[in-house]
Q: What sequence folds into this?
């Protein structure tokens, strides 16, 4: 694929991102509108009288057809309309320092009673930090284990690593979390048992990241290491590896110069997929450690029926998934000469 | 004087009842304070005065694990302890119902009630000031009470006072063509300013629970200049001021100087959000990240009990789960079916399963023995044969299938429902559980034909019965409408004589046992664990934290 093709690929991906986001936003909007919870009830609380809920439903025009409401939501997001929940006449005291009308206005979270932008980005940053640290451990660990196991398939080291990798992946995150807390927090008292990211108890922030990162790294490294092992075994069986060996290159040279690069193509894609998981899929770890992250926030929003927050979080998670896919394509293009044509 | 006391002055009657052993010391204290006796004098009469508190250490930051919910609009709080515990340290209530269910004056110095229980004179405590140095005045109390009773605000306080301070007036017609009504104060002078430090409430019907209602968790006295909004820097009369707040993460309050009351000893309190996962609370306590938990789940008990540096606290409460039916839905419209459902359960066993023994069995009456107005009724016993017979008489000889809706949180509700479902199988009821996310359930809690509702502790039984079983009130989730019940309930609400009121309550409870719309299998004993370093803590039945009473041992 020539460089021009890469640009075309990028253009297609960006267009696809826009269309996917539009379709997903509509689908999520539809689904949340059909859930039993409603914005007026959540805004006023569980004990508001039915007539109060009805009055707010009328004020917010929540009885309008769904397409009209979706268009209104889109208008608020694009900054074309003011967020109706911030109307001072409603007396809800919902205010956003950015104003009621601006581009990227995801609206007001009825769960946190704060602008979605205030809730979303801080939690996304917390999860991104957790994910980045976990990835920094997962990548070298899984590559090292996978390569070592793949070098001599069926050997003692391979068996040892393979069994360990399966064991690591088999233990659920919550169980792993509890086991690590029991050892390092309760028995040894080396590390804090939760990670609320407050330092009042004297535990530095860095110490609060150790156990959640360890859970994610242990849980995920086993899976990625097995992928790397398979790729390594496949590449080492290729004719060009045999040719390189027959040319008289040392084993070390064959592996470093010819095998590794090609063996990385498939694991690279797998690692890119792990980023999606580390952003949106680490709910259990965040719950077990009381970590104020994106996954826990999305779960809370879903259970509460916080439409604005669910919409925003879904679109962010989707954007990250599509962007990592794009990165994966670019990486594939760089790693595989055949892809560049 | 009061007819209920047979012409005898209320205090004299109470003293006589105490001497005759007709009421206990706790009941005497509660009612003596109610009719205007100062708390120290009441304590002296029962021989409990003079126990000075040991000197408490000063300083330190107390960290409590909890959920940190939105706190912006105190008058519309709906999360009970979660949201009010933060605001409670900064803003205060006119009264205070303590851990022993006795209601004291707080921002009030005293109250006086008329003989007919319709006029309550509230005298403000002198010397109380807002953090900005302004006096706490009657005008500010009136501003708060009017705001709390304004339907546009949406406070659940309105539901409590609707029966004696409000009336409905026509409000045009709705989209469906039916006439609409709205609630207004029943009289322009219903909340009267007597002078700068005295307010008088004029009720249109007798009400004995006014002091308890003034401690309902949204009834915080807010500074009018803050316009009903609470946040960092908001004014209050309390021992602390809010300095930091992030929903879902942390709330921090710091001690103020020159607090009008006792304390504070602590320098600051941090409320740390530990989420919904029960293991997080255990981990945080085990690694001493928090000194204690505001709310604990029975599932946490075995692990926390093993940690040596923790102190166990518990209190019996009127918190319960009610497995209730809609009376207009078949087959629950038949009283025999409802009775069969009650007879089909062993309440003690359900309590054991759901609460791991940390509670007491319910009697299907929704008035708890810890509430001072409880009237003694016979214990309920499981009788499978009679339950089957009742179902057969009602036309269901092989039982029936139905669905029980319940919220996912707290987890012990599901355990209680599961235990009930298994026991009901024996009488032929095939019940499917439908567990809903909390918010979704609270949207339909008054609508589902068969549901499990969590009812928090309230200091008086009449409060619960008035909220849940009086005909036509907003929280009457079952549609129970019994004129005889309503008449007796009004009588109980207007009766000051403790013994006589308990007798009326026993009649009300018997009605619920006979044809009530629910099974109420258990009472929860609330418990928590605190680090031994925490001093001055007492478990409150509503999980309220009073930071000015607490202290921390150094080290």
A:
């Amino acid at each position: 694929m020539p460089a021009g093709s890469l640009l075309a690929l990028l253009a297609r991906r960006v267009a696809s991102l826009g269309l996917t986001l539009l379709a997903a936003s509509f689908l999520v909007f539809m689904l949340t509108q059909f859930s039993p919870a409603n914005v007026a009830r959540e805004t006023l609380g569980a004990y508001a009288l039915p007539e109060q809920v009805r009055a707010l439903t009328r004020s917010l025009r929540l009885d309008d057809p769904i397409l009209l409401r979706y268009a209104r939501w889109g208008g608020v997001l694009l900054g074309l309309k003011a967020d109706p929940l911030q109307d001072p006449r409603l007396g809800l005291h919902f205010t956003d320092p950015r104003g009621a009308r601006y581009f990227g206005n995801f609206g007001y979270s009825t769960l946190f009673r704060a602008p979605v932008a205030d809730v979303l980005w801080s939690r996304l940053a917390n999860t991104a930090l957790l994910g980045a640290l976990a990835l920094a451990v997962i990548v070298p660990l899984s590559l090292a284990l996978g390569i070592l196991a793949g070098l001599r398939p069926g050997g003692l080291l391979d068996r040892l690593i393979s069994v360990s990798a399966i064991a690591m992946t088999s233990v659920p995150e919550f169980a792993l979390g509890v086991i690590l807390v029991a050892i390092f927090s309760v028995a040894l008292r080396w590390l804090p048992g939760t990670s609320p990211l407050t330092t009042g108890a004297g535990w530095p922030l860095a110490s609060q990241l150790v156990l959640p990162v360890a859970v994610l790294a242990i849980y995920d490294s086993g899976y990625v290491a097995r992928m790397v092992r398979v790729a390594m075994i496949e590449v080492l069986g290729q004719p060009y590896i045999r040719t390189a060996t027959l040319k008289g290159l040392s084993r070390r040279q064959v592996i470093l110069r010819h095998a590794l690069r090609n063996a990385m193509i498939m694991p690279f894609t797998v690692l890119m997929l792990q980023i999606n998981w580390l952003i949106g899929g680490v709910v259990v770890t965040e719950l077990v450690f009381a970590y104020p992250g994106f996954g826990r926030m999305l779960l809370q929003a879903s259970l509460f029926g916080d439409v604005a927050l669910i919409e925003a979080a879904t679109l962010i998670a989707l954007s990250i998934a599509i962007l990592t896919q794009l990165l994966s394509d670019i990486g594939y293009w760089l790693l595989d000469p055949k892809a560049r044509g | 004087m009061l007819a209920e006391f047979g012409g005898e002055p209320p205090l004299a009657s109470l003293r006589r009842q105490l001497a005759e052993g007709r009421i206990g010391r706790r009941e005497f204290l509660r009612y003596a304070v109610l009719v205007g006796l100062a708390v120290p004098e009441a304590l002296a009469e029962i021989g409990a005065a003079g126990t000075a508190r040991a000197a408490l250490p000063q300083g330190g930051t107390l960290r409590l694990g909890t959920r940190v919910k939105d706190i912006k609009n105190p008058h519309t709080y709906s999360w009970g302890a979660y949201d009010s515990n933060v605001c409670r340290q900064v803003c205060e209530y006119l009264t205070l119902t303590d851990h022993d269910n006795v209601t004291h004056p707080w921002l009030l110095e005293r109250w006086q009630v008329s003989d007919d229980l319709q006029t309550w004179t509230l005298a403000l405590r002198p010397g109380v000031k807002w953090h900005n140095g302004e006096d706490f005045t009657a005008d500010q109390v009136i501003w708060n009470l009017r705001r709390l009773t304004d339907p546009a605000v949406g406070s659940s306080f309105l539901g409590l006072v609707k029966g004696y301070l409000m009336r409905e007036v026509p409000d045009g017609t709705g989209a469906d063509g039916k006439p609409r009504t709205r609630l207004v104060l029943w009289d322009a002078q219903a909340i009267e300013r007597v002078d700068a430090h005295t307010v008088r409430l004029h009720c249109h019907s007798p009400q004995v629970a006014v002091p308890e209602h003034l401690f309902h968790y949204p009834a915080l006295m807010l500074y009018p200049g803050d316009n009903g909004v609470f946040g960092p820097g908001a004014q209050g009369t309390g021992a602390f001021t809010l300095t930091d707040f992030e929903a879902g993460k942390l709330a921090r309050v710091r001690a103020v100087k020159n607090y009008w009351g006792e304390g504070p000893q602590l320098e600051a309190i941090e409320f740390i959000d530990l989420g919904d996962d029960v293991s997080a609370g255990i981990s945080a306590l085990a690694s001493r990240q928090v000194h204690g938990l505001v709310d604990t789940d029975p599932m946490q008990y075995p692990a926390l009990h093993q940690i040596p540096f923790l102190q166990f606290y518990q209190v019996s409460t009127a918190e319960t789960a009610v497995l209730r039916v809609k009376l207009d839905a078949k087959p629950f419209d038949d009283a025999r079916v409802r009775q069969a459902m009650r007879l089909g359960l062993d309440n003690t066993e359900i309590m054991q399963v759901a609460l791991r023994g940390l509670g007491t069995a319910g009697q299907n009456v929704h008035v708890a023995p810890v509430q001072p107005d409880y009237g003694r009724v016979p214990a309920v016993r499981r009788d499978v044969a009679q339950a089957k017979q009742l179902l057969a008489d009602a036309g269901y000889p092989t039982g029936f299938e139905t669905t029980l809706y319940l919220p996912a949180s707290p987890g012990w509700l599901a355990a209680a429902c599961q235990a009930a479902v298994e026991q009901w199988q024996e009488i032929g009821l095939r019940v499917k559980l439908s567990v809903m996310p909390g918010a979704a359930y609270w949207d339909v809690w008054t609508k589902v034909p068969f549901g499990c509702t969590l009812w928090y502790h309230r200091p008086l039984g009449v409060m619960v019965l008035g909220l849940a079983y009086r005909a036509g009130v907003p929280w009457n989730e079952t549609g129970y409408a019994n004129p005889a019940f309503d008449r007796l309930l009004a009588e109980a609400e207007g009766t000051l004589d403790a013994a006589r009121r308990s007798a009326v309550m026993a009649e009300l409870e018997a009605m619920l046992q006979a044809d009530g719309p629910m099974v109420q299998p258990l009472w929860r004993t609330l418990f928590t664990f605190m680090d031994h370093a925490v001093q001055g803590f007492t478990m409150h039945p509503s999980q309220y934290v009073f930071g000015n009473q607490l202290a921390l041992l150094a080290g």
Remarks:
- The CA atoms of residues 471 and 482 of chain B lie 7 Å apart.
- DSSP finds 17 helices and 23 strands in chain B.
- The two ends of chain B are 58 Å apart (CA to CA).
